[in-house]
Specification:
Length: about 170
């Protein structure tokens, strides 16, 4: 029963991650349009701008963190597997479990510290030091959110690896 419940939760998280992946994709497109606008306004019309570069950077950061969990689900993260291809399958599966667990701990630590930083920025009203000066609570939100979702995706991956290992040892 608990595995069924876990699978149901993980499917919901994967659906959320897929949705946020598309939001991140739109953020990249919007960032490109903003930078194009900035070039036209600044160099063609000779009008100074103050918000375009910073907003584009924030949108790119948002896209990076919101798309990370979906990238893990789809196996789109960078893999350097020159050595692991030469190793026996049983060892690479164990190695995958260990590295996923280490990555989960790292992501949980980043998420925790990120939430602390976001709360500090929110409670103290931190703002960017640029002329535009947007509140930093908005861009600081994406690191802990993305790392939390990536952690949940690692939990899903680890449970999947363990379930496959359990199924093979039972003769399934």
């Amino acid at each position: 029963m608990t595995m069924k419940l876990l699978r149901g939760m993980m499917q919901k998280i994967e659906t959320l991650n897929r949705t946020l992946y598309y939001v991140g994709s739109l953020a990249i497109v919007l960032s490109a349009f903003i930078l194009t606008y900035e070039v036209i306004v600044r160099y063609v019309l000779r009008v100074p701008t103050i918000w375009e570069i910073e907003s584009s950077v924030y949108l790119t950061v948002m896209a990076t963190y919101l798309g990370a969990a979906y990238g893990l689900k789809d196996g789109a993260h960078i893999n350097i597997d020159l050595i692991t291809r030469l190793l026996p399958k049983i060892f690479t599966k164990k190695l995958s479990l260990v590295t996923s667990m280490i990555s989960l701990v790292f992501c949980l630590l980043l998420a925790w510290k990120g939430w602390v930083m976001w709360w500090e920025a929110t409670s103290k009203g931190w703002r960017s030091e640029s002329l535009w000066g947007p509140p930093l609570t908005i861009p600081y939100f994406f690191l802990p959110l993305g790392m939390t979702l990536l952690s949940l995706q690692y939990v899903s991956l680890i449970s999947e690896i363990i379930e496959k290992r359990g199924g093979k040892s039972n003769g399934s």
